[in-house]
Amino acid sequence: MKALETRTDIEELVNKFYDKVVIDDTIGFFFTDIAQIDLKKHLPKMYNFWESILLGNPVYDGNPMRVHFPLNQVVALEEHHFDRWLALWQQTLEENFEGENVATALLRAQNIARIMSYKMKIARS
């Protein structure tokens, strides 16, 4: 196991995570059918997002919450979807990395999942 400390590490983490996500029975369809993400465009954004969070390099420019609201109108993004996203993230972290940034990546993902789940629920009300 290695530490999660470089852009290359983040790219490896994100790639392995998305390998799981896009085929997942619970949430994969959001990525493949609903959002129809182009991984060649999407993954570099995710690399930047997590690099900004974990390494403190301000390379991410975007608003992840805003992107999810239209998807939530097509198919409700519910708490169990965020729970599954988080479980896959944690699994990917634990399978590949160790150290302080792993704990930070998990904590930040937990906060993101909780906030996004809450805001998507409110938006559907």
TrEMBL record:
SUPFAM superfamilies: Globin-like (SSF46458)
Stored InterPro entries: Globin-like_sf, Globin/Proto, Hemoglobin_trunc
Keyword entries, A-Z: Heme, Iron, Metal-binding, Transport
Pfam families in alphabetical order: Bac_globin
The keyword RNA-binding is annotated on this UniProt entry: no
Binding site for heme: 68
GO molecular function, one term: metal ion binding
Protein name: Hemoglobin
Organism whose genome encodes this protein: Soonwooa buanensis
Phylogenetic placement of the source organism: Bacteria, Pseudomonadati, Bacteroidota, Flavobacteriia, Flavobacteriales
